[in-house]
Amino acid sequence: MPVWLRNLVAACIVLVFFAGFYWFFIRPYAYRWKPCYGQKEYGVCMPCNYEVHGIDISHYQGKIDWDRLVHNKDTQFPIHFIFLKATEGGDHGDDTFVQNFGKARQYGFIRGAYHYFLPRTDAQKQADFFIRTVQLSKGDLPPVLDVETTGKKSPQELKTAVKTWLDRVEAHYGVKPILYTSYKFKMRYLSDSIFNAYPYWIAHYYVDSVKYEGKWHFWQHTDVGSVPGIEKEVDLNVFNGTFEELQSLLVR
């Protein structure tokens, strides 16, 4: 092979490699480095035109300094609500849930509890485990089902399992649960009219606005928030409505 041809092939391989690296590893997160033309808070550019803000936490955030965290109620983007991970699968509880769930109420935050769904585990068992773990009170957010994987189930099997959990939990608490999943996951696996009746919490990062065309209630807009009182990065959320509309969702 001539030297010039070998060099050309090598250059093409390098070009393809860098193009692929950019497409799969840089492009999806490019929004992080875009100039912030709006207002910045918690280390990120905040979405415009939303008055109700919140966070979600789990054991990953470690020990919370609640005395510092409560001061975020007085910032330009006050934190009104906190979702906390309670359970996962059929038998794994988040070891920070009980303490933090109590602290959230004590410090005046609107609180909610979520379950991380494992499709391979019996949905009824998962629902019953959540019910045994989480005691909701008047003024709490509805329970949340976090669905992020298929567990190699078919779309129909997944839908059936998800609906089983939702029905069992709704029957117990007397309120429709919130369904959490990413924009792409919902469109691919849970795009069914039977789920339109549930409040939707959409995870959609590194975009200026929600692209989902259906009705949604909460938007998890970043996973790299920096909130005083929490050492590690935290997810930031907004509610799609007024504070009074948020209150209308709460357990009565």
Provide the CATH topology of the largest domain: TIM Barrel
Shape: globular
Global Rg: 21 Å
How much strand? Answer: 15-25%
Tally of strands: 11
Strand order of the largest sheet: 3-4-6-7-8-9-10-11
Identify the CATH homologous superfamily of the largest domain. Glycosidases
Structural class, from helix and strand content?
alpha/beta
Q: Which regions are unreliable across 5 or more consecutive residues at pLDDT < 50?
A: none
Which helices and strands, and how do they pair?
Blueprint: H1 3-26, E1 40-41, E2 44-45, E3 52-57, H2 66-69, E4 79-88, E5 92-93, H3 97-106, E6 110-116, H4 123-133, E7 144-146, H5 155-173, E8 178-182, H6 183-189, E9 200-203, E10 218-225, E11 234-239, H7 243-249
Helix pairs in contact: 4-5
Structural notes for this entry:
This protein has helices at residues 3-26, 66-69, 97-106, 123-133, 155-173, 183-189, 243-249; strands at 40-41, 44-45, 52-57, 79-88, 92-93, 110-116, 144-146, 178-182, 200-203, 218-225, 234-239. The protein folds into two domains: 1-33; 38-249, Glycosidases (TIM Barrel). With 252 residues, the chain is α/β, with parallel strands linked by helices. It has an eight-stranded mixed beta barrel with strand order 3-4-6-7-8-9-10-11, surrounded by four helices. A two-stranded antiparallel sheet has the order 1-2. The model has no long low-confidence stretch (mean pLDDT 90).
